[in-house]
Amino acid sequence: MQIKKAAASLAAFTLLCTAVPFAPAQLSSLTAISAHAENADADAAAFLTGAVTDGSNYKIVSADGEVTSLKMCERVYNNGVQFAMKWSQTGGITLDVSGCKTLSFTAGHVDDNVGSDTTMKILLDGEEYQSIPLSGTSELKEITLPVQDVSAVQISFTGLGSNGGVYAIAGIKTDTLDASAYGSPIYLSSADIAAHVFNLNNGTYCLPSGENKLKMSGRTFEAGVTADPNWNSGGYFGINVEGLNTLSVTFGHVDDTDSGSSKLEIYLDGNLYNTYELTERMALQTVELPVKKRFSSAIFIIQNTDNKSASYGFADFKTDKLTDAPADSAPEYTTGKDITDAAFDLKNCTVYPIETGKYEEPNPLSINGRDYDNGIVMNVNWNQSAGFGINTEHADELTFTVGHADGLSGESSMLHIYLDGQEYKLLGEFKMTEHMPLQTVTLPVAKVQSVQFVLDNCDNSSGSYGFTDFRTSTAADAVPFTVPERKTGEDLVNDVFNPRNADIYPIPGEGLFDDPELLVMNGRAYANGVVLSNKWSTDASVGFNTDEIDTLSFTVGHADDKNKTGQSSKLRIYLDGTEDYRSPLTLTEDMALRNIELDVTDVQSVVLILEKNVTNSSSYGIANLMAEKDDKVVAEDEEPFTVPSYTDSDSIINQAYNLVNTERFVNNAGEYELPETFSVGGTEYTSGLIMTPKWNEAAWFGVNTDEIGQLCCKIGHVDGEGSEAATLTVYADGDVYQPYAELKLTADMAQTELTIPARDAQSVVFCIRKTTSSNTKYAITDFSMKEATPRILGDVSGNDEIGADDAQMVLKAYVNLLAGKKDGLNDSKRKAADIDGDGEITATDAQIILKYYVNMLAGKDVTWEDLIPKK
């Protein structure tokens, strides 16, 4: 009996085997088969046809039969018997071997067909001779049977799973017939090897002629295969290595597939050669297998280890006879956008710019108020991480800028950077926060294939961070970013970034005829600004881009009539992540407006954070923003605020602000209604402010005094409304006005007139406190205004003295005017500062005041006329 040469069967290795699709173009030639071999094939087919006496689910391979050839381990056989079983069927034949001394054949799985595990049983004249396990991943088995005294050989395949299987015996040889020749592939290129991969299970061919392109670590490979294990199902494939001394292969994670890990096992003719761990961040690994012309097959088995569906690729196949096969194409960059566009393994990432529509402008990436032309935003959410990779094979250094992406969620996250799978820890703990400054990082990548970035969530919430301005020694964007153009304070407000628990003013009215809602602080209505409102467990914050300015100034104070709880707060000021030396500022509801000037030379951003309150919320405003560059004002509102206009007592009452435990009582009765009144010391009043302090809560309100010289009013007990004593304290711009510091109030007190000098005060606050729990009411009524006592000439500070401080104030006002700023003086101060009476504030006025002060110290009696230069 003459059959083709038997191939070494694959080692028993059990794996769940499913249908194996295979339809690659055959790119290689086969070894020539001699005429003698062709005749042997015919003889073998004839022998088998005559020898098979019984069987099931089998087909004889012959040149003119239904099955003309078969492949096992990529060997091509032109004779044999193929067994195709479905579901749980068995298959087999009985051969008449009378007259034969030996029978040899090769048994194994038919390439690229269904291949559930099976057991091949051999019986000689009804007695079991041998039982051999086979699978789609086992090696070919060379079988030689002694049949000199045997008349019948039974060969059967049993134990098939639900998918069935296709197995064969081929390469028939007897003592009188030799049909053992077979064809093996000749590899002319790396693509040839990829095309002749056999038994590819849970995988994909990636060939030059196909649509599937294999990319790993940013490289594009000419040809290869992928193994795509899914959940609990592995993947595998084999390569015929007959006649080769070495076989090398490069493998790694397939770009943009899942992040699961797997285990790779490589077998040479059924013997385990080595095991490799496969991970998403692994560096590409090249392995050379010492096949040394003594192995027929190399089997690659990939087992899923974490129930995810990551794909791993195998490419750049080379042999000792094929060493110059083109391996891959690593990207080369000329711009930062090239680097962004070539990023791979993007997980929970958005690539910018986003093309939003056919007629819409691309959406830029904004970080700390800068608009970047391109970049990548990583979005972590709850327990999900985010990541991406960049190929760096043609770079010595990789530089990038990172920061919080404006307008997106901002919980803190942790950044990890991996160079060829190894975490780069020289950066230390790289924590990302919403208020972080922009950071520029340079990575040494001279011998690194790829860099991978992983962002982990820290707070079980969501956060978005941008990576941009990528560059190498040969690649960079000409203008990576732009900054907003600002000419007014309104521009500065409108261009804020990352407003959190913040309202931008003015807020447009909701109705057609509604006026916008303005920001009001201490009775001043500001043209624009930002109100920060912290809450129980959350801060409030806002950022300002300061790339093209040297000085940023603003006014801060309590936002009138918002969160009137008496809760103080702290405002922290960060310049590129470094806290200002005045920070934190303590803010209170009755505070005077405070002007802050920040030196932001070489500073990219300013972030203001209103710290959360433990028990309540509070609201504070940022307004009157101004920016300077090179000592010149570049952004400022002409009229940053307006102040109330008072005509009578009721107008003052109506425009009082921050009423806490205070009732505004104004006669607004209709034409036919009797006016409501209240009584103080027997006198009936139709208007006033009734204050009801509680046991642990004061009562207060404020009055704007920007245009008031002296504020006068009366205070007394409201008749019949409790009998508890209390104390009144009056504050002028946050400072206690000493004559009314804890002024005692009683139920039987006479109505008392109060006069508060307000010449230099922006606001006056009235506060009544008591220590008992019963409610007692006191009323402030009969508001009136008086002209302030005029300042004496030269007394700019208003302390009724002339000193060096007055000269300094005048000189500062003059410097401000030279820089294009406002002089910072009100009308009364301006009149006191204009010593020479020319209607202007100059350095001459400051010099005269200083001379006057020096003469006074020296005991000389001089007048202003003596010191004013003669014209």
Q: Outline of this structure?
A:
This protein is mostly beta strands. A hairpin with a 2-residue loop joins strand 29 and strand 30.
Report on this structure.
- The chain is mostly beta strands and 871 residues long.
- It is 9% helix and 41% strand.
- The strands form 15 sheets. The protein has a six-stranded antiparallel β-sheet with strand order 1-11-8-13-6-3, with helices on one face. Strands 27, 32, 34, 35, 36 and 38 form a six-stranded antiparallel β-sheet that branches. Strands 41, 46, 48, 49, 50 and 52 form a six-stranded antiparallel β-sheet that branches.
- Helix 6 runs antiparallel to helix 8 (843-857).
- The longest helix is centred in the N-terminal third of the chain and has 17 residues, at 35-51.
- Residues 1-35 have low confidence and may be disordered.
Q: Order the strands across the largest sheet as they lie in space.
A: 1-11-8-13-6-3
Low-confidence residue ranges: 1-35
Q: Total strand count, please?
A: 68
Head-to-tail CA distance between termini: 137 Å
Gross morphology: elongated
DSSP helical segment count: 9
Helix content: under 10%
Give the percentage of residues in beta strands.
35-45%
Q: Give the mean pLDDT.
A: 87
Structural class: mainly beta
Could you describe the largest sheet, including whether it forms a barrel?
Answer: 6 strands, antiparallel
Integer-rounded radius of gyration: 45 Å
